[in-house]
Design goal:
single chain, mainly alpha, 13 helices
Amino acid sequence: MNALILKYFCFKKLIDKEPELIKEKLEYDDSLLFSLLSFKQSAMFYSKKDKYDIYNKLNNESFIDLIIESAINLSKENDYNQLLFLYSFVIDYYVDYYITPYLSTFAKDYSLCEACNMLDSIVANQNEFNISIPLSKQFKDAFKYYDYMDDLIHLIMIKLYDFFGSTNYFKIAYKKTKKFYKNYKAKIDGINKKELKYPETYSTSILNKNKDEYEIYDKVLKYDLNEYIDYINNIINRKIKSLNAYLFDNFKDDFIKEFNIPVDKKI
């Protein structure tokens, strides 16, 4: 419902392209990738009336600040589990950033939730991924909130959002996320239940097979869906490359440029 399947395959492609010196130290399985990618969306399941409003606080441009602050923390003492978590932030944010206007163009007759689910169905079919079996049944260790995840973001959540309760909050949110992905049942304000399930059919307009021209953030493009996904992956790879250069080589220039960091910010 938030292009999770697309993000999952983007994550796998990203790891495959990582330098061997980094890749050999990354310990993960598919369940963990789903867990890491669920951080931002898990807040949607916390409560219908979330007095902390964490979902809305995370789902805007301020999430870039969370990425930057997390990178600064890791630059002081790198942890490869937390590094993967940070990678998931970059993937989650930029897939949302670029796929939303694309779907608004080619699936305008559907809600964003429906369009994302159709997109995920397409991606799953292309990758021979069985989307008909609920994710938490396929990956029984998925949708877990680990202590090292909270260790990375706890103080940042206080700094950015004046929110002190991340540990308990996300443990609850993740339990409810896992429950949702067991049977795709939830009550979410503004979303109809039927929109939460992956559809058996989808609008072929999303594929943009004719390569119709469209504009995304002042750039005129003529990519079909697969080419556009490659376009997003290339952007993410560039962001991650700049992040790695900062973390492992203390090279800050590209990191500052790629994440639009103010020049007076101490990193």
